[in-house]
Amino acid sequence: MQLCRLGSLRTILLIANGIGPDTDGYPMHPAMKLPRNTQTGAAHSAASSEAQIHITASAERVWDLLSDIDRWPKWNALVQTAVLSGPLQPGSVFKWKSKGLSVTSTLQEVRPRQSLTWTGKAFGTRAIHSWEIEVTDQGAVLRTAESFDGWLPRLMPKTMQRTLDETLPAWLKAIKSEAERAAAMAPGTRLPRTRP
Predict the structure, then answer these.
(1) Quick one: the chain helix, strand, coil %, rounded to 5?
(2) Which long-range contacts (CB under 8 A, 24 or more apart) does 21-29 make?
(3) Where are the domains of the chain?
(4) Confidence at 6, pLDDT banded by 50, 70, 90
(5) Is residue 82 a contact partner of residue 70, using CB atoms and an 8 Å limit?
(6) How does pLDDT run across 138-179, given as a tens digit for each residue?
(7) Quick one: residue 183, left, alpha or beta (phi over 0 = left, psi -120 to 50 = alpha)?
(8) 153 touches 47 (CB < 8 A)
C-alpha cells in the first residue's frame, strides 16, 4: 500500500496528530485526526468526526468524483447544488447547498489523487473538511475527517455531532457506489480484486 501524506503547512496546521479508529479493516492515518484547535480562535472544535471506506475502483476514479465539485449533485443526494468559481487550486471558492443549507467553502489543499481539504462557512458554523486517498492492491481507501465550530455548534453540540456522524459515512457510500458503478461500466477496465 502507498499512503499519501498531507503535505502543505497550512493543512498540517489545520489537522491535529493522533491515530483514529480502525474501520473497514484499514488503520486511520494519523494526519486524518481532526483538529481540536480549528485556528479560528476557539480552544476546541464543538464537533468532529472521521470515517473511511474501501472502494473497488482506482484512486484516479475516486479523485475524479471528489474533485469535480460541480458534479457532486449528480451522485450525492446530500448535495443539491455545487459551483466552483475558478480552478481546482488552493484559494478557490465554491458555493454549495447541502440539506437546504447554503455553504461557502475555500479550497486549502489540492493534491491530485491524494488529498483535498477545504474550509467552509455556513449559518453560525465554521468547518474544516479533509479527504485522503490511499492506493491499495484492491483499489483505494478513502478517508474523510471534518470538524465544526462556531456559535451554532457550541449551542447544539450533540445535534452537530450527530450530523457529522451521519453525513460522513453517507458521502463515502455515495462516492463508493458511483466510483464502482463507473468502473464496472468502463469498457476494458479490469476491476481490482475484492478483499477476502
Answers:
(1) 30, 35, 35
(2) 21/50, 23/51, 23/52, 24/52, 24/53, 24/54, 24/141, 25/54, 25/195, 26/52, 26/54, 26/134, 26/136, 26/141, 28/52, 28/143, 29/3, 29/132, 29/134, 29/143
(3) 9-184
(4) very low
(5) yes
(6) 999 999 999 999 999 999 999 999 999 999 999 999 999 999
(7) alpha
(8) yes
CATH of the domain spanning 9-184: 3.30.530.20
pLDDT digits (tens, 9 = 90+) for 114-136: 999 999 999 999 999 999 999 99
Contact, 60 vs 147, CB < 8 A?
no
Furthest C-alpha separation in the chain: 53
**Helix (H/G/I), strand (E/B), else coil: 8:** coil
Half-sphere exposure of 69 (CA within 13 A, CB side): 23
- What is the pTM assigned to this prediction? 0.75
Question: Cell 481490482 appears where?
Answer: 192
**Distance (Å, whole) CA 36 – CA 47:** 9
Residue of 26 and 97 predicted with greater confidence: 97
- In whole angstroms, what separates CA 186 from the centre of its chain? 25
